[in-house]
Design a protein that fits this description.
The protein is of the alpha+beta class. About 45% of the residues lie in helices and about 10% in strands. Keywords: Lyase, Signal.
C-alpha cells in the first residue's frame, strides 16, 4: 500500500506530461494487482478429486451449479458435510457441487455413519484439501476434520502386510483386499509421507498442526506400508516384475478385483507405485532394486506395431457411461510403444476379459460397453521411462560419494 500511495503522489506531480503520465498510469494499473497476488494465497488444487468428479458426472450429468476453485471455504464446508463419524468419506462425489437445502439435510443425517473409501484417490485427498484450507483460512473446523481423516486412514491399515483396502465396510468381494488399483495403497502412503516426520517434514507446511503422537503413528504406518509394497512385488522365476491390482490379505497372493479384472500384473497402478517409491528422498537399496526391476519389466512387455484407434459409432447409453464412439486395435508398424493394462502373472501375455469374468483372446471380443468404459490399453509408462526414471537415476548418482 505504501508503494501505491507513492505512485499516486508521483502521478499528481507529473500530471499533464504525456510520457510520464502514461508511465504512472501503467504503474497504477499493475501495482495493485501485484500486491493482491502477493497477499492472496492460491486456492488448493481440486485435481485430486478428478476421478470422483468424473464418476459423479458420468451418472448425474454435468449440468449443475459448482463453486469456483477460489471459493475454498465453501468447498471445505462441503467436505465437512460429507465426512462420516469415524473420519471417512463416501466415494465419487464432487466437492465443488453447490448443495441445496434438501441435500444438506440428507448429508447431516448421514454423518453418524462409519466407513469410507480409498477408491479413486478418495479420503486422503479430502484430508489434504482440508489441511490446505485450514492453512489459508485459519478455520479450526478444517483442522479437526483433517485430524479425524488421518485417524480413519491409520485405523484402516490392514494387519499383517500393511496395505490399505478399497473400502470399509466391504460391500463387494474385492473391497477388503490389499488394493493397489486406483493408487489406493501407494496414494495413501504418498499422502502420509507428506504428513509425518519420516522424511524430516515434522511441523512443516499445511500439516504443521499434526501433534507428536499422531505423527509417530503415521511414521509407523509408512514403514509398514513401504515394507508391504516391497513384499508384494510379483516375481516370475525369482525375478521381480511389478504389482497386481489386489492381493489377498492372508495369503498375499494376487486375486481378482471386479469380475473383469482377473488376477494379473497391472501396468497403470505399477507406474504409480514406481513413482511413489521414486519419491522417497533417501531410498534404501531394496527400494532402488524394486524400481529398477519394475522399469525393466515395463520395457520388456511393451507392445510394438499396434495402435489404439477411436472411431465414431452409434450413440449408446450404458449404466455407468454413454458412448458415441468405439475403440479398436489396428496394425501400424510406425506406432509408438503401447501397453496392455493387464499381463499374465506367469508368462506376461495380455489379459483381457468380459464383464462375466471370462478371459478372451482379443480386444474385439470384449463387448463395446467395456471397450469404451475401461482403458485396456494405454501409454501409462511412457513419461516414466523416457523422462522420470532417467532423472531419478541421475539424482541417485549425484548422491554417491
Amino acid at each position: 500500500m505504501h508503494l501505491r500511495r507513492f505512485v499516486l503522489v508521483l502521478g499528481r506531480l507529473v500530471l499533464g506530461k504525456l510520457v510520464l503520465g502514461r508511465l504512472v498510469l501503467g504503474l497504477l494499473l499493475t501495482v495493485p494487482a501485484a500486491a493482491l497476488a502477493a497477499d492472496k494465497p492460491t486456492a488448493p488444487s481440486l485435481d485430486g478429486f478428478d476421478d470422483g468428479i468424473k464418476h459423479w458426472q458420468s451418472t448425474h450429468g454435468q449440468d449443475y451449479p459448482r463453486y469456483a476453485p477460489e471459493q475454498v471455504a465453501q468447498i471445505a464446508d462441503n467436505l465437512l458435510r460429507y465426512q462420516h463419524a469415524d473420519g471417512g468419506w463416501p466415494v465419487n462425489q464432487d466437492p465443488a457441487r453447490i448443495l441445496d437445502q434438501a441435500e444438506r439435510a440428507r448429508l447431516l443425517g448421514e454423518q453418524s455413519r462409519n466407513g469410507g473409501s480409498f477408491d479413486n484417490r478418495n479420503s486422503y485427498t479430502q484430508v489434504q484439501y482440508l489441511a490446505a484450507a485450514q492453512a489459508r483460512t485459519g478455520d479450526a473446523r478444517y483442522r479437526a476434520a483433517a485430524v479425524r481423516g488421518l485417524d480413519f486412514i491409520l485405523a484402516q491399515q490392514l494387519p499383517g502386510c500393511g496395505g490399505w483396502p478399497h473400502s470399509v465396510p466391504a460391500r463387494e468381494s474385492y473391497h477388503g483386499l490389499i488394493t493397489f488399483a486406483d493408487e489406493v495403497t501407494p496414494g495413501v502412503l504418498s499422502a502420509l509421507r507428506q504428513t509425518g516426520s519420516v522424511d524430516g517434514a515434522r511441523g512443516q507446511g499445511d500439516f504443521a498442526f499434526v501433534d507428536a503422537a499422531q505423527r509417530q503413528r503415521i511414521d509407523a504406518a509408512v514403514a509398514r506400508g513401504d515394507d508391504c509394497v516391497l513384499r508384494l512385488q510379483v516375481r516370475q522365476d525369482g525375478i521381480a516384475t511389478a504389482w497386481a491390482g489386489q492381493y489377498d490379505p492372508a495369503t498375499l497372493q494376487p486375486v481378482r478385483g471386479r469380475r473383469f479384472e482377473l488376477p494379473s500384473i497391472v501396468v497403470d497402478e505399477s507406474v504409480s507405485t514406481v513413482r511413489y517409491l521414486m519419491s522417497i528422498p533417501v531410498p534404501s537399496p531394496q527400494v532402488v532394486a524394486a524400481v529398477d526391476a519394475a522399469v525393466a519389466w515395463l520395457r520388456r512387455v511393451q507392445l510394438h506395431g499396434q495402435r489404439l484407434e477411436t472411431v465414431q459409432a452409434t450413440a449408446e447409453q450404458y449404466r455407468y457411461h454413454s458412448s458415441t464412439s468405439d475403440r479398436r486395435l489396428v496394425a501400424d508398424p510406425a506406432a509408438p510403444p503401447l501397453w496392455a493394462r493387464f499381463y499374465d502373472l506367469a508368462d506376461n501375455t495380455v489379459v483381457l476379459a468380459n464383464r462375466e469374468g471370462e478371459r478372451v483372446a482379443s480386444y474385439d471380443q470384449i463387448p463395446r460397453e467395456r471397450r469404451t468404459g475401461y482403458n485396456w490399453y494405454g501409454t501409462w509408462p511412457q513419461s516414466l521411462l523416457e523422462r522420470d526414471y532417467p532423472r531419478w537415476q541421475q539424482r541417485l548418482a549425484q548422491r554417491k560419494p
